[in-house]
Automatic annotation (TrEMBL), chain B:
Domain of life of the organism encoding this protein: Bacteria
Gene3D superfamilies reported in the protein's UniProt record: 2Fe-2S iron-sulphur cluster binding domain, sarcosine oxidase, alpha subunit, N-terminal domain
InterPro entries, per the entry: 2Fe-2S-bd_N, 2Fe-2S_ferredoxin-like_sf
GO molecular function, one term: oxidoreductase activity
Record keywords, A-Z: Oxidoreductase
Protein name, as recorded: 2Fe-2S iron-sulfur cluster protein
Length: 368, 105
């Protein structure tokens, strides 16, 4: 059995579907090859932040790219909701980073100044000591020594984003197959031949590798280095609450339906099982920040694997050896979604109006 | 047993000697049975409204899995009624929507 596609996208997560939507909007015939339910899926385990503060403090191109993405989110959400008839619950009313360690608070303040410099001071943010913070958020925990606030930060319902992207892709004529991981991809003739684990073959003129952690295995088959690794994040979900939390933070957020999501841990491992000690730490952190959360029941917990590059920034790479092959990978697929669905599609097409993405070339890792 | 309930007592079942209150209405229960079983025997009607759509729900799985039996017991919101044994004098409210923060007794 064999299928034909103009552009085949390997991976039906948030990144792959954004690219598919963008290419379909430019008139291309697109096939998304999604994997199995049991595959590692960052798109189904993430926290749902549309986040700017701290991003690209040490790398101006990433600071600018993230800034553009956050600014593009309102229109993107409107457009996507229209295509898919799904409410994404986007809320961009600002977010906090809370610190219980004075040295970390100070260091992050320096990062924000560097990030603001990289953005020619278009980044607005506030650094609040405990007294300032307590005046704004009565009830903040005594152990919180300080916080940063960025009015551009926000969050979205990530599962509905994923669903909406899928619906929008289908409405735009994108074909999506699933249930089978692609095991090999190789150049053949003027295009590419893909094979999935069930033996199904696909031939495509172009191929975009958006397979998350799967790119580490598939990338080298197309000549990419694909230096990515897994980083585990663990999080927990509480019962739903009628009251609205008066803040959003990078570690505590209330989803639109009322439950609290508490997370933000980082561990260098490719094992996606949550751990009791980390859960205890998350619960203690939440209560240290906002003691009224103390009696809430935790309903669910899980771990998911971030898709990390050595420097944490995205890789957008076109193959030098095999024209028509692209590698797209990042760990901020939610925040960057509006650009992946628009500007990145221009770049894949080689449109003269496309942004210059050379800063995200994976050859940067060979130079260091 | 209430005539409105679809549940019937087994022959020879022990008498309902415990008295609970559900939203101000007396509900009888047997020693050793769960609050959920007593509520089903009482009327079998909805004992909560879901937070998202407001749909009415009643105890279903009776083994702690489905969370459809949530009620407030003695001031504690969102208690799984199927996992708690009935006790004399329990004050129970139907769980209407999401709980509040900090509404502990």
């Amino acid at each position: 059995m064999s299928a034909q596609a103009g552009t085949a996208i390997i991976g039906g997560g948030i990144v792959g579907l954004c690219v598919a939507l963008g290419l379909a909007a430019r008139g291309h015939e697109v096939l998304v090859l999604d994997g199995r339910d049991g595959d590692m899926r960052a798109s189904q385990g993430n926290f749902g932040l549309v986040w700017l503060q701290g991003k690209g403090a040490g790398y101006a191109p990433y600071a600018r790219w993230s800034f553009q993405a956050v600014q593009a989110w309102p229109d993107f959400a409107k457009c996507l909701s229209g295509l898919a008839d799904v409410d994404l619950a986007l809320c961009q009313q600002g977010g906090y980073e809370f610190f219980t360690d004075a040295a970390e608070y100070e260091a992050f303040g320096h990062d924000l100044h560097r990030q603001a410099n990289a953005l020619d001071d278009r980044l607005s943010f506030e650094l609040l000591n405990h007294a300032d913070l307590a005046a704004r958020l009565p009830g903040i925990g005594q152990r919180v020594v300080g916080a940063s606030f960025c009015p551009l930060d926000g969050h979205v319902n990530p599962l509905r984003l994923h669903f909406a992207l899928r619906q929008a892709c289908l409405a735009s004529g994108v074909r999506i197959t699933g249930g089978a991981s692609v095991v090999s991809v190789r150049p053949e003739g003027a295009g590419f031949a893909l094979l999935d684990e069930t033996g199904r073959q696909t031939r495509a003129s172009r191929v975009v590798l958006c397979a998350g952690l799967g790119a580490a295995h598939l990338g080298p088959q197309l000549g990419f280095r694909a230096p990515i690794r897994a980083q585990r994040g663990e999080l927990m979900i509480t019962e739903r609450v009628a009251d609205r939390l008066p803040f959003l933070s990078s570690t505590i957020r209330q989803v639109d339906e009322g439950g609290f999501q508490i997370g933000g841990t980082k561990a260098e491992t490719d094992c996606d099982t949550e751990t009791t000690t980390t859960m205890v730490g998350l619960a203690q952190h939440a209560v240290a920040v906002w003691s009224r959360l103390a009696d809430l029941r935790v309903l669910r917990s899980w771990a998911a694997l971030r898709v990390m590059t050595p420097d944490g920034y995205p890789i957008y790479q076109r193959s030098a050896d095999h024209p028509g092959a692209f590698l797209v990978t990042c760990h901020s697929g939610v925040t960057l979604a509006p650009l992946h669905a628009t500007r990145l599609a221009e770049w894949i097409d080689g449109d003269p109006a496309a942004p210059d993405l050379e800063a995200f070339d994976e050859r940067r890792f060979a130079l260091s | 047993m209430n005539a409105a309930s679809r549940f019937r007592d087994a022959p020879g079942a022990a008498p309902r000697s415990l008295r609970l209150m559900l939203d101000g209405v007396p509900v009888l229960a047997r020693p050793g049975e769960s609050v959920a079983a007593a509520l089903l025997a009482h009327s079998g009607g909805a004992t909560r409204q879901t937070p998202v759509t407001g749909a009415g729900r009643a105890p279903y799985c009776m083994m702690g899995v489905c969370f459809d039996c949530l009620v407030t017991i003695d001031g504690h919101p969102n208690v799984q009624a199927c996992m708690v044994s009935a006790r004399e004098g329990m004050v129970i409210q139907r769980q209407i929507g999401a709980r509040r923060l900090g509404d502990q007794p």
